[in-house]
Amino acid sequence: MTARTGEQYKAGLDDAREVWLGDENIHVASDPRFAGSINGMAGYFDWQHKYADTCLVPDPERPGEVMSASHIVPRTAEDLQIRHKGLEQLSRYSYGMLGRTPDYVNVVLAGHVARKDIYDRAGDPVFYERLRKFQREVIEGDLSMTHTIIHAAIDKSAGELAGMNSDLTLRVVDRNANGIVVRGGKLLATLGPFADEIFVYPSAPVPSGAEAYALCFSVPVGTKGLITLCRDHYGVDADIADKPFSSRFDEQDAFVIFDDVEIPWERVFCDGNLDVYNAISPAVSPSNTAQQICIRAMVKLEFAYDLCTEIAKVTNSDKRPEVAVMLGEIHTYLSLTRAAVVAAEARASNHSTGDEPAWFPHPDLSALRCVMPGWMMRVNDIIKHIGSHNLLATPTAAAFENSHMGDLLRRYLPGANGMKAEERSLLMRTAWDFAGSALGSRVELYEMYYFGSAGRGFMTDHMVAQMKGEGGQVREFLKESGAWRVPG
Ligand SMILES: Cc1cc2nc3c(=O)[nH]c(=O)nc-3n(C[C@H](O)[C@H](O)[C@H](O)COP(=O)(O)OP(=O)(O)OC[C@H]3O[C@@H](n4cnc5c(N)ncnc54)[C@H](O)[C@@H]3O)c2cc1C
């Protein structure tokens, strides 16, 4: 198998996976409620063929075959540039409204593979060899992966792995000749029911004594004992002109329960080794993974700027000062994001201490994860300010086809400057589906939390800066100027 088509992707979902929607154990591949979203995800696989010149690259290990550019293990500046072009084009499929297209976890996995030096800390080469082999399986099957990396901490007054939380979250409960047996919950798994594999890997460090929780592995979503509990589905069976996003792009979040799941040894990449576990996330996430998330955010902000400009033109208000200020605000977020991506890629370097380089962007790029949630929420706020009630005066495409209603709408609901009523309605419906529909609200929550909370991001940035010894300017200034008269 090489890069898959949408039809091949859909065929792969027809297995024995245990997926629950409400109180029903459903068959994902044929459930009509999921049809629009699964077709939407299939469209992503077709898109990589449509834009094969950027989305697909030669597979270095299989002459004549291609793979997604997101699988590149970056060793050089050129690798990063090629990957950038692929990721940008893949994001344009949904203009960033799909956050968890498979390229996301592909980039994460490629980052792990690039950091052999960290996996080598296990002192046994078998763990890295398994990881490397697993990446080949994903490439050659063009598998789609979800990931779930956050401990299911229910009681926030206790530590993440303390009190009741220690019994609820995922951990090893047994080992046997075949592999490890794991039990507990993890959250969330966006794309969970629509993925082929679930990759569990380190997020935040765990303390000494918590080795049972220090796991990295992957298993097929259809593995016995793996239960995927979906949130309400926000995808709708509607004309694409009425719901351009909700009709195709609900990537479906899920809570995942591992009810004594056996993970075969060949899929266990870290089993309680804190030297490896605690080093992986800081080594891969702020630099390597950040390239994918920031490119997606950049593409989404491009779309958001254009969308807001378009809806302002509907009422001929784009040049009004209060509206121009808001449009400029979004454009500023876009420019800052573009600049940060370009700068981080230009300042990329070898992050590995091993024989093969891991050529990652500069980790400063991850600063965007702290401010981007606020920017994305502000974009939705601006859509509501500019669109106002017009976001709701939006007849359906079918209403225009009704001869009586269509005539009335064309007469009473046109846009300004001769804009046709159909165009006005389509633009406003697109804006509402982006920011205000059930799916739009879920996407806003996604932007707030999908890469950890902004609060944790700010706190981590401060602690890393202190660990690196940043600071000293205040004392230097006071001493240089002669103001420092503190005894001792
Ligand atoms: C739609 C959606 C999809 C997701 N998909 C996935 C997925 O596929 N895979 C996955 O693994 N995860 C996923 N996540 C992320 C994950 O599940 C968590 O939601 C996320 O990490 C936030 O967790 P939390 O509530 O524990 O946040 P916290 O970090 O506890 O933050 C909660 C609030 O507290 C604030 N806060 C936190 N720490 C501090 C502090 N020290 N001081 C002051 N304020 C603080 C934060 O700013 C925030 O407002 C997803 C999340 C969402 C919403």
Q: What are the salient characteristics of this protein?
A:
single chain; 488 residues; alpha+beta; Butyryl-CoA Dehydrogenase, subunit A, domain 3; 7-stranded mixed β-sheet; globular; binds flavin-adenine dinucleotide
Number of strands: 15
Distance between the termini: 72 Å
CATH class of the domain at 282-467: Mainly Alpha
Q: What oligomeric assembly is this protein in?
A: single chain
Average pLDDT metric: 97
Gross morphology: globular
- Summarize the amount of helix as a percent range: 40-55%
Number of helices: 17
The unique ligands bound to this protein are: flavin-adenine dinucleotide
Radius of gyration: 24 Å
Strand content: 5-15%
Largest sheet: 7 strands, mixed
What's the name of the CATH homologous superfamily of the domain at 282-467? Butyryl-CoA Dehydrogenase, subunit A, domain 3
Helix and strand composition category: alpha+beta
CATH architecture of the domain at 282-467: Up-down Bundle
The CATH topology name of the domain at 282-467 reads Butyryl-CoA Dehydrogenase, subunit A, domain 3
Low-pLDDT windows of residues: none
List the helices and strands and how they pair.
Elements: H1 6-12, E1 18-21, E2 24-26, H2 35-50, H3 52-55, E3 56-58, E4 66-68, H4 77-91, H5 103-114, H6 116-119, H7 126-141, E5 145-147, E6 150-151, H8 164-168, E7 171-175, E8 179-187, E9 197-200, E10 215-220, E11 226-230, E12 254-264, E13 268-271, H9 274-314, H10 321-346, E14 349-350, E15 359-360, H11 368-387, H12 397-401, H13 403-412, H14 421-435, H15 438-449, H16 454-467, H17 473-481
Parallel strand pairs: 1-11, 5-9
Antiparallel strand pairs: 1-2, 3-4, 6-8, 7-8, 8-12, 9-10, 10-13, 11-12, 14-15
Helix pairs in contact: 1-2, 4-9, 5-7, 5-9, 9-10, 9-11, 9-14, 10-11, 11-14, 11-15, 11-16, 14-15
The structure holds flavin-adenine dinucleotide.
